[in-house]
Amino acid sequence: MKGSSDNRYIVFLGAPGAGKGTQAAGVAQTLGLGYIATGDMFRQAMEMDTPLALQAKSYLGKGALVPDEITIPMVLENISAPKFKGGVVFDGFPRNLKQAEALDKALAEQGKAINKVVYLKVLEAELLKRLGGRWVCRQCQTPYHAVDSPPKVKGKCDKCGGELYQRPDDTVETIKKRLEVYFAETASLIDYYAKAGKLYEVDGTGGVDEVGERIAVLLKGL
Ligand code: ADP
Ligand code: ZN
Q1: Nearest ligand 1 atom, CA 38
Q2: Active site residue 178
Q3: Distance between CA atoms of residues 16 and 21, nearest Å
Q4: In this prediction, what percent of the chain has a pLDDT beyond 90?
Q5: CA angle 195-197-203, nearest 5°?
Q6: Which pLDDT score is estimated for 211?
Q7: Can 43 be counted among the known catalytic residues?
Q8: How far is the CA of 157 from the centre of ligand 2 (A)?
Q9: I want to staple 20 with a disulfide (CB 3.0 to 4.6 A). Which of 12, 73, 148, 202 is the partner?
Q10: Tell me, what's the pLDDT at 85?
Q11: What is the percent of the chain where pLDDT is above 70?
Q12: Catalytic residue among 8, 116, 134, 198
């Protein structure tokens, strides 16, 4: 499924638990695009105990945003890498207005621009339910849900056999805080991209395949 353009930049927007990770990674794979998930990047850094890890740890643990001074350069360094030349699917970035503007500017400097923003819409009650039962593969980051999308073998990833774990920030307290941060900082990007004529709203309720189908229709021909 090769698209018409050489430069395809897709942003996934939505609350924690909306299914961004699952769907964004799927789209990147289907379209043969790079995949940048800032949450995954921070978690990977934390496992390796890098200097970035120490800084990131305290923010992720609290459900707060990692400061823009750390996050923005980390992403911008990556988008100019050769392997991301054909385009990128962004998951979890941008998360506030400053990040969105920085991304637009960096792409514009390369004569590129975001093509489409997929806004995955899910009601808050459903978000809470999903985040509460979430298990993630330690190796490939694929998310599962204890009830809605359990792995075939308990505790093991269907895709790579990796060990499943519960993210330390998926506790009731931190989930609350992350949702607060989303509504206070990230939700304004819905407006930002709508004004730019780039926003495409997708109903994020239902099964992974069902939602994936809605997104595929939307991105057809891209
Ligand atoms: P979720 O969308 O479920 O909250 P993520 O994996 O996208 O999960 O993010 C986890 C955490 O990583 C966030 O709560 C935040 O601390 C940090 N983070 C991820 N992306 C960004 C970003 N673009 N800017 C600042 N912090 C971020
Ligand atoms: Zn896995």
Answers
A1: 20
A2: yes
A3: 9
A4: 78
A5: 100
A6: 97
A7: no
A8: 5
A9: 12
A10: 84
A11: 97
A12: 134
Choosing among 3.10.20.600, 3.40.50.2300, 3.50.50.60, 3.40.50.300, the CATH entry for 8-123+180-219 is 3.40.50.300
Tell me which residue has its CA closest to atom 2 in ligand 1.
16
- Token pair belonging to 54: 């120490």
CB-CB contact of 159 with 140 (8 Å) = yes
Burial of 219 (0-12, 13-18, 19+ CB in 10 A): buried
Domains of the chain: which residue ranges?
8-123+180-219
**CB-based burial, 9-29: b 16+ in 10 Å, e otherwise:** bbbbbbbbbbbbbbbbbbbbe
- Is 167 labeled as catalytic in the residue annotation? yes
Range with the poorest average pLDDT among 43-52, 82-91, 203-212: 43-52
Residue 11 has pLDDT above 50, yes or no: yes
**Of 156, 167, 177, 214, which residue is the catalytic one?**
167
**Does residue 5 surpass a pLDDT of 70?**
no
Nearest CA to ligand 1 atom 1: 16
For residue 51, how far is its CA from the centre of ligand 2 (angstroms)? 26
Tell which atom from ligand 1 comes closest to the C-alpha of 39.
Answer: 6
